[in-house]
Write a structure and sequence with these properties.
disordered N terminus; alpha/beta; 10 helices; 4-stranded mixed beta sheet; about 35% helix
């Protein structure tokens, strides 16, 4: 039986533990938190950009925990090699060109335990030896924190002058310490920050779409003010999102007027404005 709301402890401050920490056991929103992480935001952003008719690529460099193939329902499709390099898999909805280490493994449950040099070599090939073709946007999903993957991506894309990074935070202000390190990393590496998103911010009622603040919130705006970066918006927990993504579909297509879809549309506009200005 789910616990009463009064018995639910504060959510973990580190988004990497969302749905996994001991305080999450028995919480009615555990499954939602497991499915609505930063990779879900990367996928939604790619889908909503493609919905506007843009040519979109999605690169998943979360080497040890790739989830993009399952979110786009392309986990059963292998990456094909050609004389021009790897050919990205095209998603069945949105025609998003996608490349992930999850598509390069023989099994989705296969564990990846690689040290820095091997990670670096793989990411280099995923960028330089892949037939991406003409793209309007390339969305890159990175693992949480600051690691070899982030440093490698920034160095490989230095000559292309990437538009910038979108920072994702949990709603609790306790997460500010973890996310602050990511912000300072971007600043130190000279990578522009397009803005910050507060994820899992409130609960969106499946009946009336009203968003209730079940737990504490405000980390996104706090960090935006502290570091003088744009606050792109908040994304609530939406019960319909789990079933939509399990089928590899788009929230924008399936539930265009939901709280998540409307918030993501607003975030997309803010991101494009930041890129074009």
């Amino acid at each position: 039986m789910p616990r009463d709301i009064e018995d639910i402890q504060e959510c973990p401050a580190d988004m990497r533990q969302a749905g996994k920490a001991s305080v999450c056991q028995g919480c009615p929103g555990q499954e939602l938190c497991l499915s609505e992480g930063k990779s879900s935001i990367a996928v939604m952003l790619a889908q909503i950009l493609a919905h506007d008719g843009r040519k979109v690529g999605l690169l998943d460099v979360d080497i040890c925990g790739p989830s993009v193939p399952s979110l786009l329902k392309i986990e059963a499709q292998p990456v094909m090699d050609s004389q021009w390099g790897w050919k990205p898999i095209v998603s069945p909805q949105g025609n998003i060109k996608t490349l992930s280490v999850g598509s390069l493994l023989s099994s989705g449950s296969q564990a990846v335990v690689w040290r820095g040099p091997r990670k670096t070599a793989l990411i280099r090939r995923m960028i330089k030896d892949t037939l991406w073709g003409r793209l309007d946007d390339l969305v890159i999903d990175t693992p949480p924190g600051t690691s070899d993957e982030h440093l490698t991506i920034i160095k490989l894309l230095a000559s292309t002058k990437p538009d910038g990074a979108v920072i994702i935070t949990a709603p609790q202000k306790m997460s500010a310490g973890v996310v602050s390190r990511e912000i300072r990393f971007c600043q130190k590496m000279g990578l522009p920050i397009l803005g910050i998103i507060e994820n899992l911010s409130g609960f969106c009622c499946p009946c009336c779409s009203e968003v209730s603040q079940v737990f504490s919130s405000g980390a996104g705006k706090y960090l935006a003010e502290k570091y003088s970066i744009p606050f792109l918006g908040s994304l609530p927990i939406d019960p319909s999102m789990s079933s939509v993504q399990q089928r590899g579909l788009s929230m924008k297509e399936e539930h265009p007027h939901s709280g998540v879809s409307e918030a993501m549309s607003h975030i997309k506009r803010r991101v494009i404005e930041a890129v074009e200005n």
